[in-house]
Amino acid sequence: MTDDTLYESIGPGYARTRRPDPRIAARVRSALRGARTLLNVGAGTGNYEPDDRTVVAVEPAAAMLAQRPPGAAPAVRAVVEALPFGDTAFDAALATFTVHLWHDVAAGLAELRRVARRQVILMTEPEIGHRFWLTRYFPETLALPSEAHAPAVADIGEHLSVRAVEAVPVPADCTDGFVGAYWNRPEAFLDPAVRAGMSILAQLPPAAAARGVRRLRTDLARGTWDARYGHLRTLRTYDYGYRLVVAGEQD
Length: 251
Hints:
13 helices; two-stranded antiparallel ribbon
């Protein structure tokens, strides 16, 4: 399943659980400081798009475009590997929670570099993210193409002039339902609506997803999850491996 067909499948319910977390949004805005024109690539429903500058969104999935709220930035249906814009058309290009789903990461990064003077990417460092306790219950996720071939920050640096990498810890009460948001709230993964908004779980065959839910439900009922990971419930933030990468020219 490719990124565009994947989100045609999970897209209809995406907006129910995926809302921008204001603390993460503040970090993204800071990285975009000084950029008056912005291209948001893999924009989805518009999460993390600033509303105080000129923004154009790019999204390949019609189901995601249909959920963009009234008043959202204008959007173009296209893929990152072939952006329909001229050279240096934007001050900055933004890509949040999307680079691991690209068909050709090198080509996509080259396009970001071509159309914008600055590139801002919010992504997961796979070496850290793959150690998340969720993989104990859904081990099949590690074999998915989007995970097995997910780029690391070092890979981004092979194609862009990276000038800053910032860790983005996930708050304990994160309001955006991405997979790392529920690091201290395991019960959330029992909700099919929550799982449907996560590409990593939406890609699993139904039988594999059902097995993982049964394992987690059993461990929660028996207290096994809390015996292993209950200390997480006491923390205020957690480093799932999310990194904010800033590359290109500096204002």
